[in-house]
Structure formats: structure tokens, C-alpha cells
Amino acid sequence: MDVNTDLAMWSNQLIVSAMIVYAIAMIAYAFDLFGGQELKASETAGGEAKPLSVRRTNRRTATAVLDAPVAAADAAAGSGTGSGRRDGERRVRRAARIGTSLLVLASLLHVAAVLTRALSVMRVPWGNMMEYILTATAITVVVYLVVLTRKDVRYLGTFVAGGVLLCLGLSITVFYTPAAQLIPALQSYWIAIHVPIAILSTALLYISAILAVFQILKARFEDRAPKWLRFTRRLPASDDIERVSYTIAAVGFITWTFTLIAGAIWAEVAWSRYWGWDSKEIWTFVVWVVYAAYLHARATRGWGPTKVAVLNLIGIASVIFNFTVVNVYFNGLHSYSGLE
Fold it and tell me: Locate the Cytochrome c assembly protein domain: which residues (predicted)?
């Protein structure tokens, strides 16, 4: 089957366009995170704490608005999910609203790039490393936006947009692969089952890892933060961040388990054995073991929340190692990077 070069070219142009919008969204989110107003339930004046509602009444410039992209999250303010929302205050966060709106626009361009890439070769768009990155980053943004409808996690926006921007840059430079048909080893219906679940797992575990970083920072500087980490005062409580991070990682662990099982079944179909100690198989199992240890440590409470969060970060590091170093430098039956 021939490759539609026009659609492939359009896909590349859409990737570049999405990167531009992601960059602007990242800047907008950065203004909100590093230059926004601190979230404090009260402030001390003359040795007496004043409620936040009183402070806001005295500030004529304060305006109560509902942030459109996270209306559900802000409407639920006051439920105890963050120290700055205990009195149900609604804050003006123009930069965050702009960042989220731009992220939605960028995600539309991004998804269009994935679709045009798929249509250019009339197959699933994850046949090599470039396409895997392209699809995985699109799913990551979608996961973030879905989480955003339930929790106000706009403080992650800088790192979601920035991480996706970096990955897309690598996909069209270091990992770029021209549009082409699948190699014979990948021409199986299992590619439409095994790989999408692996992509979803990667997206979930990445979001969880970013939350783990914020959890560690918030726990370390809960009471007093240096000037260069003053933005941590605008974050929810570390326990709240940890719960969201754990929930997402738990779902990611389940989908990664399915990835491991589906990969073994595909291996039996392709090579007449479920397990062959191939480098990719080994490292996929290593990732599973690390996250199993993370979930076990968290469930048993044998370790403190910070140590458990470090396990989460080791897990995402193993995922990245599995995708980059193992795919590129380790020889094996799973050498499908598409790189020459």
C-alpha cells in the first residue's frame, strides 16, 4: 500500500503547530504557578489570624470568578481538598485559564497530527518510536484534561505542556521516522490491543510521577519554603497530592499489567513462546515490579509518603529507560524503533 505523502506532510506541520501552542500554554501556566497569589486560609495581622473571606472583602481588586475550564473543581471548593479552598473562595487565575484553553487547542492540533499520520499509511499510528511518542503525548494531555475536570491540578500544567513539548521535539528530530508501512513482524491485530494499553499506561504513570514531585516538594517545605520554592505555598496539602498521585498510579499499574499479559500472548502467537527473556520483556517486567513495590509500600504504610513517592519516580525512570535506551541500544526481538 502506498503512502500518502501529502497527509504525512500535513501531520508534520500539525505537530509543529501544536508545539508552538504548547510552548505558549507552558508559559501561561508558568506565570500562574510561579507568579500567582499564595493560597492561604488566613493571614496574621497584629498577632490575630483573619479569615480569608475578611481579607478578600478588604481587597476591592479581588474578584470572585469561576474558572471556566475547571468549573466543576471550583464549584466543589470548600470540600477540604486544599488549604486555600476551605472557605470556598473562587480565585481569579487568568494565566491558568489561558494556559488550559491553549492546551485544549494544542491537543486538538496534536490529535489531528496523529490522525493524519494514521491516514497517510492507513494503519494504527504507533508502528515505531516516533509514532509511539506522538500518540503517547496526545493521550497524556487527554488524561490531564480528564483529571482536570475532577481536580484542580492546573499547577501541573507547566510540566505537562513542557514535557509534551520536549517529547514532540524529540519525535521530529532524534526519533523522526518517515511514514511507511508496518514491518511484517508488527502486522498483527495484537498491535491494536497491546500497544494502545502500553501508551495509556505511560500517560497515566507520567502524570502520577509529576504529582509525586510536587508531593515531595510540598511535604519538604510545608511550613517554610525558600524564596525560589515559594510557589509550593500555592499547592494543595501534600496528603491531597499524594492521594491523587496514588490513584492514577494504581490505574496505570493495572493497565501496565494488562500490557505485560497481552505482550506475552502476542509473543506466543508470533514466536510460539510466552516468555523468552528478551531485553524488552525483561524491562517491561522490571517496570511492573517497581510499581508493584510502590503500591505495596503505600498500602502497608511501612514507608513514609516521601519514600513511597521516590519509588514512584524510580518507576517512571524505568519506563523512560525501557522506551529509550532499551529500544535503541539493546538488541532483541523487539527492535522496532524504526531508527537506522
Answer: 126-334
DSSP string, 245-275: HHHHHHHHHHHHHHHHHHHHHHHHHHHS-S-
- CA dihedral of 335, 139, 318, 231, whole degrees rounded to 10: 150
Please report, for the chain, the start and end positions of each structural domain, with discontinuous segments joined by +. 1-37+91-181, 183-339
- pLDDT averages per 10-residue partition of the chain, 340 residues: 90 97 97 69 36 36 37 41 42 85 98 97 92 96 95 94 97 92 85 94 97 92 75 87 95 96 91 87 95 92 85 96 86 58
* The three grid cell numbers given for residue 109, joined into one nine-digit string: 492540533
Terminal Cα-to-Cα distance of the chain (whole angstroms)? 22
Q: What is the DSSP string of 169-203?
A: HHHTTTT-----PPPGGG-SGGGGTHHHHHHHHHH
Which DSSP category does 77 fall into? T
| Cα(324)–Cα(332) distance, integer angstroms | 14
